[in-house]
Structure formats: C-alpha cells, structure tokens
Amino acid sequence: MQDAMTPPRAGRREWIGLAVLILPLLLVSMDVSILYFTVPFISRDLVPSSTEQLWIFDIYGFVLAGFLITMGALGDRMDRRRLLMIGAFGFSAASALAAYSSSAPMLIGARAVLGVAGATLMPSTLALVRNMFHDEKQRSTAIAVWTAVMTSGIALGPVVSGMLLEHFWWGAVFLINIPAMVLLLTLAPILLPEYHSAGRGRFDLGSAGLSIAAVLPVIWGIKEIAAHGVDVTRAAAIVAGLMIAVVFIRRQQRRPDPMLDLAVLRRPAFAGSVMVSLLAAFAMIGFAVLSTQYLQLVLGMSPLKGALWSLVPSAGVGAAAPIASTLVRRGVDRAKIIAAGFVVAAGGFAVLSAVPVESGLAVWLVGSGMYAAGVVVVLSTATELAVGTVPPERAGASSALMETATEFGGALGIAILGSVATAVYRAQLGHHVPDSARETLSGAVVTAAHLPPAAASDLLRSAREAFVASLHTAVWTSAAIMLLAAAVALIYLRGVATPRPAAEAELLASPGPLNR
C-alpha cells in the first residue's frame, strides 16, 4: 500500500498521455525550420517581396517567443487540457489557412496565428507533464523524453519538408500538422487530466500586454542585428523591450496574484536552470546556421542531403537524454550532470575546430554528435529541475519562462556567433575580392557563378578557406562559453534539488490544484 505522504506514481494512462503530448510538441518545434526548402516554390506561386519573404520565415518564431509567458500564465488560471485543445484547434485551422494561402500577406498572417497557437501548446505540454508525473524519478524520465523530442523536431523539419516537396506542393508542409492535431483532440479528453487551479485571480491583461511588448522587440532586434548588423532602429528596439520588461517586473511586484511569480526566480534551482538553458540554446541554435552552411556551401551538399546528414548527430541526442535521466534517478547531483553535459559539448566544439575545408564530414559528425548530446543532457536536466521546483499551479508560466529563455539564448547565439564568424570571414578574405563575395559565403558562390572558370575556382577556394577559419573561431568561442557555463552550473546549482516526496504529497493534498 502506498504511503499517504508519497506522491502517486504514474501508470499506463499517464505514459500513453505523454505520447499524446509529444505530437503537438514535435510539430510546433518542426514548424520553426520546416520552410527551409520551400523558398523557390513559395516565391514562384505567391511572388513575395524580399521583406515579405523574410517575414514569412520569421513571424512564426517572433510571435511564438512573444506569447509564451502569456499563454503559460493563462494555462495556470484555466483548465490546461482545455487550453491545449484550443491551441490544437487553432494550430490546425492556421495550418490549413497557410497551406492554401493565395498571397504573401495571407501566408504571413497564417504563420502569425500558428505562432500564437504554438505558444499555447508548448507550455501546456510541459505543465501537463508536471501535473501527470509527481514521482521525481518518473518525472525526470518524462521530461527527458520531452526535451529530446523538442530538440529533434527542429532538426527534423527540413528533412520532412524536403521529402514532401519531392511529391507534393509547398502547402503540404503545413497540412501534415492537421492529422496529428485531430488525433490530439480525440485522445486528450480520454488520456490527459483536467487541471483546475482554485484561488487564482483573474487573468491580468495588462501584464500580458507588457510581456508581449517586452519580448517581441528584443527578439526582433537581436535577430535583425544578426542578419543585417547594428543600426539605430534595431538597437532602439532592444532598449525599448528592456524598458518595458522593467515596467512588467514592477507590475508583478505590486500585484497580489502576479502573472509571473518573481519569487520563483529567487530560487537558485529555478534561476540557475533558466541561465544554463539559455547558455545551452546559445550554442546549439547559434551554431546550427554555420553548420548548415558548412554542409551545403563548403562540402557542396544539396539541401536535402545536408538535412539528412544533419540528422545523424541526433542519434547521440536520443541516447543522451535517457542517460541524464538515469543519473538523476541514481541520486547524482544535478549540478555535476549539467556541468558534465557542458564539458562534453565543449569537447564536441573542440573536435569541430579540426574540420578541414575538404572531406570533413566524419569530423563534423563526431563533433556535432558530441556537442548535441552534451547540450541535450543540460536541457533535459535543467528543465526537470526547474519544473520540479515550482508548485503545480505555477507550472504553466514557469515552463513558459524556461522556453522563452531558450528562445533568447538561440537568438543571442545566432547574433553573437554569426557576428564573430562574419568578422573573421571578412578579415581572412581580404579586400582583393568583390564586395558581394566578402559579405557571406553564399554571396561568394553567387559571385563566382558570373566569373570565368579559373577566377571562379580561385574565389570559391579562398571563400571556403575563409569560412572554415571563421567556423573554427566560432567553435572555440562556443567551447569557451560551454566551459564557463559548466562553472556557473557548479556554483549556482550544487546541492539544489526538487521538493522532497513528502512535500510534494502535502502540496497535492492541500486545497488548490485539483487533478481528476
């Protein structure tokens, strides 16, 4: 007989429910990258301007990041299963609208709605995992699965789109969302628990507006700087977002029932987990752009072939998350697990520093597999620690804050690593080549196409050598940041743990959240 003070263990229903929750998570993460191969097809049919084309790609990520905290807090005040189903319905409808868009503005609008729905789904899935798995060891395993699926979805997006475009029109990359969401809408009422948080105040629309207004301009400014460099408008957007964030924080401090509980951020376990997640995303997402260019523009792979090879390191991801979960269950200090993950990632980046200009696929696979495995160990362990630290009734907003930190980390990684790589590339290439070739490696490839064969060959060789030199600088920068992050984990997370089983059981037995 189970002790009254022991949290209930999850059974078959909860584990099947986890499989159901993986569906929306996989699709939301895939939609970040699923348009990579569709540019020629969308351009031919919708004829977007250069600005519209950028917004078709970026609007989804911007809106997703901006609405995460708002939707997470909304889930803390209403039935999370119902909010998940609303998000699934909205994601299906927006997917159909995107697939059959007849103009670029219509597709941009559909992608924006997809971002809102995605922001509804992501924190809802993680918060429901918190509500379904109260046993610490089982929750660690469930969150390891959640993290592996989220990170794998981004890598899987280009592959799925490439395969679909071989046989169907570009709208098919959106239509694949609908069957999975219909399945979710069918199974969620049967397998997922309802969750009602009693005693919570009304949803604060003012705070919601401030959180969106704080996140969106900062994300936009960082990504624009990464793509086009610093100017007054982009810098002003970041400053404006940070100023609004200060107003948002002061509002939370004054309200009796804040949308975001700032007391959670004062807990070393949660604040440290947010920080290491941001640093892990910095390396993983920031380096992904350079890695893609290496496969396609240096090794000369087609986009689909490059995407397929990029899945190979995911084998390490699939093994790393369960290993991290096993170590947590055996009582290893989470700070040591996270620090070890960062050290492995740093080792992977060190291996990548040996990538040559030609025939470097084997070195790239080993290094990428190492850093991906290390980063997933960090993300799964940090997420499990952060989610287990907060009470169930705060799980939605807290999960959203973790996911927002990951978005910021990725944006910063793209901006900083991209800027470092660009500076080295230009310095290595010198001033004896056309300006268009000095901007990017892709610009050099385009320029070479209009030159005589001998001149084109010389330009491409010089540009590829300069790019690989810039890649080496970026990976050493990443390795240094990973080692710094390992030190941060050991300092701020040593000895911290999730609530003891008795405290968890007492929390479940107290008035407030109701699971049934």
Give Rg in angstroms: 23 Å
Ends apart, CA distance between termini: 21 Å
CATH architecture of the domain at 264-516: Up-down Bundle
The H/E string reads HHHHHHHHEHHHHHHHHHHHHHE
Count of distinct strands: 2
Helix content: over 70%
The major pleated sheet works out as: 2 strands, antiparallel
User: In the CATH scheme, what's the topology name of the domain at 264-516?
Assistant: Growth Hormone, Chain: A
Which shape, going by the Cα principal axes? globular
Number of helices: 21
Mean pLDDT: 79
Q: How does the SSE layout of this entry go?
A:
Blueprint: H1 12-30, H2 39-46, H3 50-75, H4 80-99, H5 104-132, H6 136-167, H7 172-175, H8 177-191, E1 195-197, H9 205-228, H10 232-254, H11 262-265, H12 268-298, H13 303-310, H14 314-329, H15 334-352, H16 361-389, H17 395-429, H18 435-439, H19 441-448, H20 453-493, H21 501-509, E2 513-515
Antiparallel strand pairs: 1-2
Helix pairs in contact: 1-5, 1-6, 1-8, 3-5, 3-9, 3-17, 4-5, 4-8, 5-6, 5-17, 6-13, 6-14, 6-16, 9-10, 9-17, 12-16, 12-17, 12-20, 14-16, 15-16, 15-20, 17-20, 19-20
What is shown here, in short?
It is built from 21 helices and two strands.
Describe this structure in words.
Helix 9 packs antiparallel against helix 10 (232-254) and helix 17 (395-429) runs antiparallel to helix 20 (453-493). This protein has 21 helices and two strands. The model is unreliable at 501-516 (pLDDT under 50). It is mainly alpha-helical and 516 residues long. The two termini are 21 Å apart. The chain has a domain at 264-516: MFS general substrate transporter like domains (Growth Hormone, Chain: A), CATH 1.20.1250.20.
